[in-house]
Every structure is written in structure tokens, then in C-alpha cells.
Amino acid sequence: MAASGAEGFAPVLAALSTMQSNAERSQKSEAHEYLEKFQKSPEAWSTTHSILSTTDATAEAKLFAATTLKGKITYDLDQLPRQSLPALRDSILNFLTTFRDGPRPIRTQLCVCLVNLAIQMIEWKDVLQVVGSTLGNSGGDCVLDFLRVLPEEVTEGRKINLTEEDLTCRTKELLEDNATQVLRLLTQYSQSSTSAASNPHLLECISSWLREIPAADVVTSPLFDAVVHALSVEASFEAAVDCMCTILRDTREVDESIEIIQLIYPRLMSLRPRIGEAAESDDEDTFKGLTRMFAEAGEHWVVMIARLPNEFRGLVEAILECCARDTDRDAIASTFLFWYELKQMITLDKYKPARNQFADVFARLVDIMIKHLEYPKPGGPDETDLFDGDREQEEKFREFRHQMGDVLKDCCDVITVTECLGKAFSLIQQWISTYGAQATNTKVPHWQELEAPLFSMRAMGRMVSPEENIVLRQVIPLIVQIPNHEKLRFQAIMALGRYTDWTAQHPEFLQPQLNFVIAGFKHQSNEVVKAAALAFRFFGTDCRRLLTDHVTQLHDFYESVLDELPPASQEEITEGVACVVSAQPLDKIYPMFKAYCDPIIKRMMSRANDAKGAEDEAARLAVADYVQLITIFIQQIQPYVSPSLENPAVKYCQEILPVMSAIAENFTSSTPILERVCRCWRYMVLSYRTAVLPLLPTLAQQLASGFENSRQGCFLWATDSVLREFANGAEFVEASTSQAIYSFFEQQALAFLRIMNDLPPSDLPDVIEDFFRLLIDALIYYHGALLPAPICSPIFSAAISALTLQQEAPLTATLHFLRDFLSYGTDHPNSSSFDETSNTARVINSPDIQQCVKRMIAEEGEVLTQRILTGMMFSFPHDCFPDASGVLLALFEIMPQQVAIWVKGTIGMLPAGTVKAGEGERLMSSVGMKLQQGEVRKVRVLLQDFTNSYRRRNVAPREGLGRLEATRFRFNG
């Protein structure tokens, strides 16, 4: 028998062996395909039983068999006659008896099998009794595993193919009706022996059943003693912490849980001495568990802490102690949310007494956080190697510092910014008085103790009001004298960059800071140079009015450093000087704009000449970077000019437009250059709006020819800004201009359709995304011209064709367009929701427009229905489901009976064997009933549930979708 069984499953074992070996990829692919088909086959039922029964299979093979059996029960139970389910149940129970002592992964999978069978086998009413009596007294861990899995699968599985009513009823039978019995069983088990009371499986089981059993019932039972006792047993500590945190989570509604909190609180506080013990003995796991437990208690009881600060002060101090003693900084992060939540509560006027009560705690918290901000001391002779060469640890520390900076901001809200800044100032003063005289250009003693308060000042910068008049007046003169150490100089410059808003109100402090930052551009450290560029950007942005008289000197400085900086820093310093130029009087805008940008244009043209060679990618990227710098000037320099006067910024844009056009024409295959040029053109429109009208004919012509020649979506992105700015009804725009813009849009749409005719959607995802985002705006502003136009029908067909894509961004854009398009088949189109009190007229959707949309739905609606349903069943990313079902809903709202016929036809065309017997008929019956009742929106839910269930059971068939396979888009225009 064993031999014949082995022969029956030998191919499965061979395929598994191939998957686990070093075989070639093609062999592994074949093995994977074979196993995937095997798992769906009816033969898998008997084969998995054979593998689990034999002694010839490895533990890995038996785990695969148990996992496959789980999938069969979840998705394919209809392959078995209903009368065979008791036998299946008994066989799983037998397997559980065999594997009750392990291996645990196999035992767990078998428990999941039994639970999923129990959910669907609604006639099985005595589930717990049968499992308990079958496994017997010796099946302790196995029974606990089953009990743990039961609520998890019932409440989270939701993969079972039951009606909502049956699932609700079964959930009540399996969980709610058994909760009291389970509590009694777990209590009896916990009292059966000392080892049972601290069994991690027991604690996991309690955590799982806390979904159904109120925490109050556990806390008032002997089980809570077991949980607290398990916290002192090393083997069960982690599971006990999880269990305690789950109990705490159930007490979040403090008004309802006050009596339970009063029972838990003293037991929790009795654990406080262990914080110090764990810290002193370097027991990291225990320390982290205790910190997590106290922090979660604080989070869930924060309302109670704010109401009764005296009574709960011990808990807050315990959390503070965890922070103070965490020398390795491994546990402190779990307290951050608590400090934020507590700050949110006690800064309310209602809880002002608690704010006063905890002021000293937050003051100590500032000291602790600044101390934790210190870089470690180097362990070896290399002063620069602070993390023993562990770059990952260094990155983790950097990220961690910013989280601690957020806690410092919370402290500022509680005890005032001035007090928090004062602590940083005191530490800086203390370092200067202790070590300042010892610092040299090559060695700075204990620099970590100076760098940390500098970082804290940087972190708190956002909280400081420009009116702060106590600490900053004293500390900024000290910062600009910081020794020339890389990390100190970096942090000092970054800190100054955070206080530029304050400096704008205190101009007497500007020059020393600016000199300090500009000196940073000459530093040997690239990090310091980058910091200087970022800080300069803030100075230019916030202090532009103070720097207007220095615009010429800044030009010389800008020219001297620009070529030495990396691209990101070039952009930052450019933004800084562009802001200063923007603050110039109107008569100086044009000459200053030209003075700053002409040298960049020359650099760009020089690199463009170098970049003509096919191999010179670096030169092409440099061209794109220079275009970006010009764009930054255009973004920042937006002078207010009367509509009757020439805009000096537009005058300069008119000069450089031919240069940009030449760049675009000469680099039609360079995506970075074309995207930057289109971005530049787009911001010309966004920055100067209707003042850009003199440039419009040339700009439109360049966008049209550029798209046709390059087939890059960025030209459509730029077109969108033109369309929105010069649309029908826009202020200061003549009707003839708006009409010309619509003609320009149609030209772009025609080019897109020709491209779609030449290439499949999979080759054009970005272009498709940009086109349908453009179409969404075209519907808003030009629906009256677009929807009746001959070009609209092929656009609709192109959208349907685009639904074969699997990337989220282009699909989302297409689905949004389709939802807006279909809404014009109703009285209330999506784009007509303007405020009636505004100057924009409310869109009235005429019967003629509705008829145009309905005509196109009649022609293409069946194909659209097929593409939406097959996408939801096979290919759409999950985040596209709401929009996809929204398209179906829109179709049903316009033509309910016809769309129901199309849905039925689509389901009938699905690959054979993928739809369960009677499933399609039940769906269509439910759809028909909802339509008769006028509940069209509920049809959307029915179709979502059907496609979700279908998708879980099936993957896209390798042999294709048969009659539902998409056809290529064709356009003859």
C-alpha cells in the first residue's frame, strides 16, 4: 500500500525536490507550474492524504501537503460530495493526533485546515467537544494551537465562499457561543500544572481569544495570574508581554474599563523594579518587553492619566525611567507615541493641571533625549569610525535621531520653546567653558557633547516663533563660532537654516550667519557643502527683503560656486538667489533675471553641443540639470504686473523660448531632457498665467511637434497646464483663444491615437497616464465640444484598450477618465459640481450630451464590461478595485438591464472550470433582484464580492483568457 501510494505522489515529491535544489531556473519554473496545477486538481485531495500518511516523505513534503490541503478546503471544497465532509474531518483529526507533538508548522497548518472545514461544515455543531475528545488529555499544545487558530481564521480569513448571512451565523456559533467554554478550558489548563501556567502556547491562545472574550473576564479570572506569572519566566516572557499588551488594548475605552484598569494598574506597577534590574544586567529582551508594556499602558490610558495625574504619575515616571536607562537606544522608540499622545491631551485647556503636574517630567525628558542624541564614542583609534564600520547601524541612528527630534517638539508644546532651547543653550555654554579652549582645527575634544544640543536646536527650529527674544539672541552668536569639525560645522549650518524666519525679524544677526554659511561652501566635506546649500536656500527664501541690496554680490558668489556643487545643491542655492531676485523692484527684474540666467543658458548650450554624441549620457543629464535651474528661476520670480503692462519675466522667457525649443528638437530620445524642458514650459504658464499669451502660438506648436516626434507623455503633461489656463470662461482669455486651445488639444489627441495604433498599451504606460489625466481636464473645460466630436469615440476605445495594463498609475488615470466620461450620460456629471455662488457657471448636462455618451456605451459597453470584469478578476492591482467597480456602477446607472446582460455574457465566457456550478446563476439572480428593487449601488457590492472570490480561487490562466482575450486598438484617422 505504501509503495503504490509512493508511486502516486512521486511526481509531486520530485517537483518539490527540484524547487529546493540548485536546479536551473527553467527546471524550477516547470516544477512550479506543475505544483501550481497539482494544487488546483481534484487529485490533490487523495495525494495530500497519501503524503501525510506515509513515512517515505520528508517533513518539508508533509508541510507542503498540509498547506495544499488547507488551500483545497478554503477554495475547492465544492470538488467533494457534501456527504464526504465528515470523513474529511475525521481524517484531519487523525492527522492532528499523529502530529500533535510536532513539527509545529505541520500541526498549525492542519489546525487551519480543520478550522476552515468547520466554518463551511455548518451542520457540525459540536466542534470544540469533538476536537477535545479526539485529541484527549495528552493533546495539550495541539488543542491550544487549534483554539488559537479558530478566532484568527474566522475573523480574519474571510476567504470562505459562504454567503454573508451564513458566515455571520457561523461566526456566532464558533466564537461567541463558545467564548465562555473556552475561558473555562483555558483556566482549567492553566491550573493543571506549573509548566502549563507559563506555557507560551496558552498565552498565545489567550491573546487570540481576546477578540471574543472581554479583557475584563480574563483579568477577573485566574488566567490573569498566569499571565503575570509568565512575565517572570524567561521562556514565556515574550508571549506574556504580547498577551498583556492585548489586554491593555482592550481597556482603551477608559470610562467603560475603569474598574479593570484599577485591577491591572497595581500588578503592572509591581513590575517597575525589573526595569532597573534588566538594564543593569544588560538583559535587552526583558528591557524591551517591559518598555513596550509600560508604553502601551500609557498610550491606552492617556485620557485617565490626564484626568488623574497624581494617581498615574508612577506609570509616567516608569516610562521616563525606561527612556533614561536605555543606553543602547533599542527600546526607547516604543515610548515615542505615548509622549505624543500625552502631549496632545495635556496641552488642552481642560487638562491644564496635568500639564503643570508633568512639566518636570517633560523637562527631564528633554535632558534624556539630548543625551541620547549624542553620537557614540569611537571604539578604536580611528576617530571617524563611530559605528565600527556598520553602515546600517549608522543609518538607523540617523533616522532614530529625527524621531527623537519629534519628541523634543512635543516637549516644546508642554514646557515652552524657550525652556527647551534654554537647555540646549546651557549645554553649548557648558561645553565651551569646559572644552572650548582645547579645541583646534585638527582635534575637538568630546565633540559629541556639543553636536547633540546643536542637533536638538535644529530639531526644535520649527517650534520657535520669530518673536522669541531670549535664548536665540544669546545662542546664535555662539553657533557661528563653532570649531571647524565636520559634524559640528554640518549641524551648526543646518541649525541656522532652521531659524531664518527668526533672522528675518532680527536683521542685525543676518550678516554673521550668512558669512558662516557661505564659508561652508569652501569646506572640504561634501556633507557640509550640501548643508550650506540647503541653509542658503532658506536664507534666500525668508530673508529676501534683507538681501535685495546684495543681489549683485550674490551673483558673483553664485557664479563662483555653482559648477562645484552636485545637482541637488545647485537647485537649492538657485532657489535661494531666485528668491532674492524676485524681491527686486519691477524695473530691475528683467536685468537681474537675465544676469543670473544667461550664464546658465551658455553652460547649457555648451553641454548640449558636447551631448550630441550617442554615448555622452553625462552631458545629456547636465543639460537637463541646467534646464531645471532655469525652471527654478521661473517658479520663484513671479512679479505682480498689471494686465495692461508687459511682464518683465515673460519678456525674458520670450528670449529663451527658442533655445528651449532647439534643445527639445535636438534631443527627442532623451527622456530627462524632454521632461525638464516640458516642466520649464509648464511653469511658464503656471507662473505667469495669461501674461504668457504672446508665447502661446510658439509654445503650442512646440508641444504638438515635440509629442509627435518623441512620443513622450511629458508633452501632454505640459499641454494640460495650457488647456486649464486658457479654457472657456477663464479670466482675461478671449473666446477665440480658448477655441484655438481646444483645436490644439484635438491635435494632441489625434497624435496619441495614432501612437496607440502603432504600439500596444504595454509599451506606453506613462504616455497613457498623461493622456488620460489631460482628458479628465478636457472633459471639465471642453465637454461640450469634445463629447459630440468624431474623435471622442476612438478616445473611448483607446481607454478600453488601456485597461489591459497592469500598472497602477496609468490604470487609475484611465479609470478616473472613464468614470467622469460615463457621468456625462447622466443628469449630474462629475465635473459639474461647481459652487453656484462662484463666478464659474454651473455646468448643465444637456440631453444631447447624454445621448452622445449613451450611443458610445451602446457601441462599446460590452467590451468595456468585459475588460473591467476580467481586470478585477485577473490583472488589476488591488488599489484599482474601487475605481473599476465605480465604472461598473456608472454603467448600471445608465443602462441597468443591458449591462446586466453584458455581465452575464462575460461570466459565461470565463475559462472552463473556473466558475463553480450555479455561481454565475446565483450572481445574476441577485443582480436582477437588486435592479428590480432600484438598489443599483448594491449591484456594485455583489460584483466586487464575486470578482474578489473568483480572483482568490484562480490565477490568470497560462493558456490565456480565450474569448475574453483583449483585441488590439485600431485607429485609421
UniProtKB/TrEMBL annotation:
Q: An example Gene Ontology cellular component term from the record? A: cytoplasm
Matching SMART domains = IBN_N
Q: What is this protein called?
A: Importin N-terminal domain-containing protein
Does the record carry tRNA processing as a key word?
yes
Q: What does this protein do?
A: tRNA nucleus export receptor which facilitates tRNA translocation across the nuclear pore complex. Involved in pre-tRNA splicing, probably by affecting the interaction of pre-tRNA with splicing endonuclease.
One Gene Ontology term from the biological process aspect of the record: protein import into nucleus
Q: Which domain of life is it from?
A: Eukaryota
Which GO terms of the molecular function aspect are on file? Answer: small GTPase binding
Entry's InterPro entries? ARM-like, ARM-type_fold, Exportin-1/Importin-b-like, Importin-beta_N, Importin_beta-like_NTR, TPR_TNPO3_IPO13_2nd, TPR_TNPO3_IPO13_3rd, TPR_TNPO3_IPO13_4th
Q: PROSITE patterns recorded for this chain?
A: IMPORTIN_B_NT
Domain (Importin N-terminal): residue spans on this chain: 31-98
Q: Which of UniProt's keywords are assigned here? A: tRNA processing
